[in-house]
Amino acid sequence: MADETVVERIHALQVSLKDGDDLAKAINLIGDALERRMDAIRTSLEQLKQDERVPDGDRLDQIVDRVTSTLDRYEDEIETRRRRMEELADEFQNSLGTRAEELDEFEAQLDDSEA
């Protein structure tokens, strides 16, 4: 492979290794989508509970309470997982950044040998 091609591929790899923003954005988008869905469910539950056409009753209250407690549990777990994913992405990116620095050194050596 020609030196120029090697340098181009190394540069493309460096850009990929250094760009962790897309991973962090993906994690946030997933978390945001889940939060919006849960908010919509909570809003629907509240509307159902407040709707005067829906008869009062223990069964409806039990269903609303169970769904609400399930949402609470899932929101807590989702937040925990979101934090873990962000920590993992940071760790992953730091590790890749180190590899990218090594590629910088290798690229400099190639540039020196071309001169």
The quaternary organization reads as single chain
Number of domains: 1
Q: Give the helices and strands as they follow along the chain.
A: HHH
Q: Using only CA atoms, what is the Rg?
A: 25 Å
Structural class: mainly alpha
Low-pLDDT windows of residues: none
Describe this structure as you would to a colleague.
There is one protein chain. This protein has one domain (3-114). The protein has helices spanning 3-18, 21-50, 58-114. The chain has 3 helices and no strands. The mean pLDDT is 77. With 115 residues, it is mostly helical. Helix content is 90%, strand content 0%.
Question: SSE layout and pairings?
Answer:
Blueprint: H1 3-18, H2 21-50, H3 58-114
Helix pairs in contact: 1-3, 2-3
How would you summarize what this structure contains?
The chain is mainly alpha-helical and 115 residues long. Helices cover 90% and strands 0% of the residues.
Primary descriptors:
single chain, 115 residues, mainly alpha, 3 helices, 90% helix
